[in-house]
Design a protein that fits this description.
It is a multi-pass membrane protein. GO terms for molecular function: ATP binding. Keywords: ATP-binding, Membrane, Nucleotide-binding, Transmembrane, Transmembrane helix. Strands 6-9-10-3-11-12 form a six-stranded mixed beta sheet, with helices on both faces. By secondary structure, the protein is of the alpha/beta class. Helices cover 34% and strands 21% of the residues. The chain contains eleven helices and twelve strands. The radius of gyration is 19 Å and the shape is globular. It binds adenosine-5'-triphosphate.
């Protein structure tokens, strides 16, 4: 639908400070150019809007056969629930979420949504039910309108305006010379990190999927902007099943459930209060250890 723009100096900045961002970029490319091993099964059906009940059933997966990451994961997430995944770096938090839109194929067991094996759905219909917000936002060289409409290509002008309003991007747009027609990119206006995040959020409001994956930002935004974005994300997650890949414990206290992942296993789960009350709890010790890390989960902190 267009060409990514990504100035070279930006790439270097990303490599230096956001190793996570590159992983996100990789996943996005994989999303666009679907991996050869992930394809529609014969007889796969196009599902309509799903409710968003998610179940991992004895799920097995590894990026290579020699190194399994999940060896029988069982996890249920109820429609509308917000679950935050925490745990040390490399525990498998991102992988759990990447398997849901089938960026990779499970090696055993299954992942079900509303009781249907995701492999029995067409990729297109599955992914139309899932919205992903990553800290790296992918913009096309084009107008703000087109960039928002990427969330749903057949959206009307009204719907685009409404999505921008809900993402609180309307003020930004009003201040730009050509409003929604303002061209962003190499030859246009450069958006700030916070504005890009808002644009990403507007896309998802427009797409309106029942399932949301939030790959939480690790840094880059100032505290005020960060707070405002968190507020918008909280609104975005309302009424949607939300999986949060959490890098900062401070922002997940309001999740309905916190799932602590270690070595591809769920080692603990419960509400923030429940987990903090556990004397020898993993979450409790992560929480205690974070104090000196500016709120970053120890081991998850970026360079
Ligand atoms: P972090 O907090 O650092 O993002 P995480 O809990 O999200 O960690 P994952 O990214 O899911 O962990 O990684 C789980 C394991 O899989 C790690 O050992 C990681 O090195 C490995 N891994 C992740 N992505 C890939 C990939 N694309 N190819 C091969 N191995 C991978």
């Amino acid at each position: 639908v267009g060409v990514f723009f990504r100035p070279v100096d930006k790439i270097n900045a990303v490599i230096e400070t956001y190793p996570k961002g590159i992983a996100g970029f990789q996943r996005y490319l994989e999303f666009l150019a679907t991996r050869p091993d992930v394809a529609d099964r014969p007889g796969a059906r196009a599902v309509e809007r799903l409710r968003g009940d998610i179940a991992y059933r004895e799920m097995r997966f590894g990026y290579s056969a020699e190194r399994p990451i999940f060896d029988g994961l069982d996890l249920d997430i109820a429609a509308g629930e917000t679950v935050a995944f925490v745990g040390p770096s490399g525990a498998g938090k991102t992988t759990i979420c990447s398997l849901l839109p089938r960026f990779y194929e499970v090696a055993g067991g299954a992942i079900l949504i509303d009781g249907i094996d995701i492999r029995d759905m067409t990729l297109q219909s599955l992914r139309s039910n899932i919205g992903i917000v990553q800290q790296d936002v992918f913009l096309f060289a084009g107008s703000i309108r087109d960039n928002i409409a990427y969330g749903r290509l057949d959206a009307t002008e009204e719907e685009i305006v409404e999505a921008a309003r809900r993402a609180r991007l309307d003020g930004v747009i009003a201040a730009l010379p050509d409003g929604l027609d303002t061209v962003i990119g190499e030859r246009g206006v450069k958006l700030s990190g916070g504005q890009k995040q808002r644009l990403a959020i507007a896309r998802i409001f427009l797409k309106n999927p029942p399932i949301l994956i939030l790959d939480e930002a690790t840094s880059a935004l100032d505290t005020e902007t960060e707070k405002a974005i968190q507020q918008s994300l909280a609104e975005l997650s309302q009424g949607r099943t939300t999986l949060v890949i959490a890098h900062r414990l401070a922002t997940i206290a309001n999740a309905d459930r916190i799932v602590v992942v270690e070595n591809g296993d769920v080692v603990e789960q419960g509400s923030h209060a429940q987990l903090l009350a556990r004397k020898e709890g993993r979450y409790r010790s992560l929480h205690a250890a974070q104090a000196g890390h500016g709120g970053a989960v120890p081991g998850n902190a970026v360079a």
